[in-house]
Amino acid sequence: MTANSPAVLIVEDDPAIQRLLRNTLKVQDYRVIEAGTGAAALRLVQSSQPDLIILDLGLPDVDGMSVIRDVREGSTVPIVVLTSRDDERSKVTALDMGADDYVTKPFGVDELMARVRTALRHRLAALGSRPIFRTGALEVDLVRRLVTLAGDEVRLSRKEYEILQQLVIHAGKVLTHRHLLREAWGNGEDIDVQYLRVYVRQIRQKIEKDPGRPQYVLTEPGVGYRLQVLEED
Question: Does the pLDDT of residue 112 top 80, yes or no?
Answer without folding.
Answer: yes
